[in-house]
C-alpha cells in the first residue's frame, strides 16, 4: 500500500529535503485524507488563518474525532496546564501581556538590545573553545550551547542544570511527532512525566526567586504586580517551562540550518564575511527558506470556514504548513533559491497574528551574531557530510549533527 502524502512528509526518510513533497502538497491547497486533519500549504491561506479568530490553538478545545497523526500528549492530573502558546484569547492575551512586561517594549525596551555585549562574549567563547578545526560538530559545540546559555541567563536558570532540563526538553519536543515504533500511551506518559519533573524543578527556582529576587525574568515574573495582577503559581510554571524550552529549541535549528545553507551557498557566505551587516537580511531569508518550525499542527476550527472554495467543517483538526507557504511561487519569485537580496521577505518563519513567535527579537539577534561570527572566524569552512543526519522531529526540523571542517580559526 502506497503511503499517503501526509505520511511521506512525516517519514524521517524524507526529513533532509521535504520541499518536493510540499510542492506536491500545494497542488491541493486544502489537503484532506480520510478522517485526518485539513492541511493548508499555500502562503495567503496560511497567513489568513493565522489571523482568523475562528481558529483555536487551545489544546482543550473539544474537536471532532479527527485521526491526528500528531496526537496531543494527555495532560493528566498534576501536569502543567498549557502555556499561552496553546491558549486562546482572553487567557492567551493576558498571559502573553504579563510575560512581555520583563521581556520587551514598552516596559522593558532595552532588555534584548542590552544583551548584545553578552551575546558577543558567549559566541566568542564558544568559537575560541572549538578545538580541532578539522572536525567540528556545530550542533554540539556551538548551535546548542549558545541559545541554551542565553536563555538560562535571561531567565535566571543555573547553566549547570542544563543536563537535567535537556532530557525533559527533548522528551517534550519529541512528543510533537509520531514514532511508528513507539507505544502512544507510553509516549504520552513520558511527556506527562517530563512536564511534571520540569514543573517541580522550576517550582523550586521560583520559590527561591520570590525569597531573593534578582534582575532575571523569573524573578520579575514571580514578583510582578502589574495591571493584570500576579500570575497564579501554575500559570507561572507553565510560562517558565514554555520560555525555557521554546527559548532554545527553535534557535538551535535556525543557527544550524543557517550554517548548512550558507555552506551550500558559498557566494553568500563570502559576502557575509566581508559585510557583517548582511546578517540581517540573511537571517530573514533563512526564516523563509529553512524555517526552524515547519508546521503548526493541532489547530481546531471553531466554525465552518471556507478556504479556497473548500468548506472546512467546525471542529476539524487543522495543520498550517509554514515551510510550504514560504516556498509558495504565488507569493515568492523563484522560491527555491536562497536570496538574501529579496526586496520583500514577508515570511511565515516566525508565524503571524496573535501567536507570532514571542522570542522573535532574541532569536533574530542570536542568529545574526552566530552566523556573522562563524562566517568571519572559520577559515575555508566546508561540509563533511551532506545531507547531515536529521532529528526525528518533523515539526521542529533541523540537523541532529552538522559536521564541518575548516583550515583554522581566525582571531
Automatic annotation (TrEMBL):
Transmembrane segments: none annotated. InterPro entries: Cyt_P450, Cyt_P450_B, Cyt_P450_sf. Signal peptide: none annotated. Residues 54-114 are annotated as: Disordered. It comes from the Bacteria. SUPFAM superfamilies: Cytochrome P450 (SSF48264). Belongs to the cytochrome P450 family. This is Cytochrome P450.
